[in-house]
């Protein structure tokens, strides 16, 4: 729970210089991107004999597509059960005067002999598993993994599974396929303290008189519980930057909440922009530099930009 809101309040309204400093936060907004037609039919897959075959496609920026599925060189309307062995699947997507193609390999098996699993560290507090067939990456359907005796979780369609954030220490795992234990093992996560600014949720532009409602979102990226951190904020109104310190304002806040690995922490931002301060509208473009401090060390910095019109 947030111990106290990170509320930036204009306390300098009695001073004319207050119009130069009005801090509020927003990420730099993405510019509109040109159309980029795209098609995918997923990753290479291993299926057990008699498994149902699904022909699924994902498209983007394609208007009125026409689909042509080809399996082993033959055009098909749907996918029946395939024989044992390797099969090549191709999808041609026609739209306008263009054609895009996607393809993948499907292997049908009735033995677990060539199914394997790789595991490796994914982040400071997560482990990743990847299924293999004959030492190549394949998404093996109905392949399940358990970590620290947790409930079995199925790998995704591309055959990988990333654990939830874990504490430092030794962890055990077990993998099952077709009712058999295929592999098992353990891994050790080192003790690390790490917290990041993962997002700043706010609009890019405001009018004088608007109310700002937003969040600074922090995430514990390490493998230990974070207890206590600080945030320093520097706000500059670039319209009046030539006036030096009068166009700047700094804030310093301390927090004592405990954050376990992977936990997100929201710092609310709420303030009403005055329409005028000492008769002047607080307009202009602003840059906001946020520094996250842990154990007296700056461990993350983000810069955001916004505007009051």
Number of helices: 0
Q: How large is the radius of gyration?
A: 27 Å
The low-confidence runs, each spanning 5 or more residues with pLDDT under 50, are 1-30
Instruction: Tell me which CATH architecture of the largest domain applies here.
Output: Sandwich
Per the CATH scheme, the topology name of the largest domain is Immunoglobulin-like
Summed up:
With 309 residues, the chain is mostly beta strands. It is built from no helices and 24 strands. 0% of the residues lie in helices and 53% in strands.
Explain what you see.
- The structure is a single chain.
- With 309 residues, this protein is an all-beta fold.
- The protein folds into two domains: 16-27 and 202-308, Immunoglobulins (Immunoglobulin-like); 33-191, Immunoglobulins (Immunoglobulin-like, Sandwich), CATH 2.60.40.
- 0% of the residues lie in helices and 53% in strands.
- It has no helices and 24 strands.
- The chain has strands at 38-40, 45-48, 58-60, 66-71, 74-76, 85-95, 98-109, 115-121, 127-133, 136-137, 139-140, 143-147, 153-154, 160-162, 169-177, 180-189, 195-201, 205-206, 211-220, 226-237, 248-259, 264-272, 284-294, 297-308.
- The strands form six sheets. The chain has a six-stranded mixed sheet with strand order 5-4-6-7-2-11, with no helix packed on it. Strands 18-24-23-20-21 form a five-stranded mixed sheet, with no helix packed on it.
- Strand 15 and strand 16 (180-189) form a beta hairpin.
- The chain is flat, with a radius of gyration of 27 Å.
- Residues 1-30 have low confidence and may be disordered.
């Amino acid at each position: 729970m947030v111990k106290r809101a990170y509320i930036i309040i204009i306390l300098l309204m009695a001073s004319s210089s207050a119009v130069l400093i009005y801090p509020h936060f927003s990420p730099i907004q993405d510019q509109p991107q040109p159309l980029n037609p795209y098609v995918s039919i997923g990753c290479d897959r291993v299926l057990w004999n008699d498994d149902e075959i699904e022909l699924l496609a994902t498209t983007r920026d394609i208007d009125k597509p026409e689909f042509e599925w080809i399996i082993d060189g033959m055009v098909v309307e749907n996918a029946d059960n395939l024989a044992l062995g390797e099969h090549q699947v191709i999808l041609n997507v026609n739209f306008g005067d263009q054609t895009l193609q996607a393809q993948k390999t499907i292997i049908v098996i009735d033995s677990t002999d060539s199914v394997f699993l790789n595991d490796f560290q994914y982040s400071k507090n997560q482990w990743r598993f990847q299924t293999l067939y004959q030492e190549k990456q394949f998404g093996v359907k109905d392949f399940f993994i358990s970590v620290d005796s947790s409930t079995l979780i199925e790998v995704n369609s591309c055959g990988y599974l990333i654990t939830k954030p874990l504490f430092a220490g030794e962890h055990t795992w077990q993998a099952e396929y077709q009712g058999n234990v295929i592999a098992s093992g353990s891994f050790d996560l080192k003790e690390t303290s790490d917290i990041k600014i993962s997002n700043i949720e706010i609009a890019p532009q405001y009018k004088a008189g608007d109310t700002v409602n937003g969040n600074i979102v922090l995430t514990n990226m390490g493998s230990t519980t974070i207890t206590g951190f600080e945030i320093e904020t520097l706000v500059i109104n670039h319209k009046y930057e030539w006036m030096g310190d009068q166009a700047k304002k700094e804030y310093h806040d301390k927090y004592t909440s405990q954050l376990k690995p992977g936990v997100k922490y929201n710092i609310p931002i709420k303030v009403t922009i005055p329409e005028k301060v000492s008769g002047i509208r607080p307009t202009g473009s602003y840059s906001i530099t946020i520094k996250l401090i842990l154990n007296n060390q700056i461990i993350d910095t983000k810069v955001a930009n916004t505007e009051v019109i």
